[in-house]
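Honest question from a wet-lab person: if I give you the sequences of every part of a complex, can you actually get the arrangement of the whole thing, not just the pieces? Trying it with mine:
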Amino acid sequence: MEKIPILKMGDFLLVTIQVDLYDRLALNLEADLVGTINKYQSKGVLIDISAVDIVDSFMGRILGNIAQMSKILDAHTVVVGMQPAVAITLIELGMPMSGVFTALNVERGMELLRAKIFTDDADTETDSAE
Amino acid sequence: MMQTQKLIVLSNEVITILKEHDVVFLRGRISQYADKIQMGLLNKTKLLTAASELVRNMISYAGQGKVLCEIVASIGLEKGIRLTFTDRGPGIKDISLAMKDGYTTGKTLGLGLPGAKRLVSVFEIKSQPGKGTTVVIIKWKNG
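Yes, you can. This is the full assembly:
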């Protein structure tokens, strides 16, 4: 059974999708990720899709689901490295991917995640100060 | 309409879809055909995405089916890929409703059919309730 590896990097989880995704694999990834966030109490998830040639409505929905589920578990999700042709196709398909944070590459994705967690922490501190 | 226009079929192949994993094989073959006629990356991505949507519909509503992949040329010798998706599933009662964005009878987003139509050059659908559905799409190399 194929499996997409989830790497732990400090407070973050890193997922690089290198294979052609089919439904079962995508659904397993969704379940694995949610489980792993819970296990390590991760603060952020970075999904690299630079090797993914196509994202259809199902895949788009899975990415959206992952973002929403991790949000409920207090983790942010950033999707990075989307190919330009994939982005154009997603919009024409009618799948705007609203609710999913994106960044051009892994570096910028990491920056975005750090910034988000920093704001979260700052909020908590202000709350406790009150 | 496009369908009345005579097309020359340069090569064809039937791919049987029985399980989810066949989708990966189908995408690979379509990708090879697209490369053969030197279709650009954007058009290829659109064609593959449309095919992925249609074959997903086929599996989720009919369970299985067949896809005829053809390289076609128009009279003006423009090359393209024609895909014919045939299944013997439950069929679609109201096609105009099924072509609306966001309409679904399943658990999907309802983007499959209307989304696929926006991504290709020619889109034709025929369906008989209880008998099955046939969808024909063409993506021209430069269209």
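Two things worth pointing out. The beta strands of chain B are 8-17, 65-73, 79-87, 122-128, 132-140. Chain B touches chain A at residues 20-21, 23-24, 27-28, 31, 41-42, 44-46, 48-49, 52-53, 56, 101, 108-109, 111-112, 114-116, 118-119 (CB under 8 Å).
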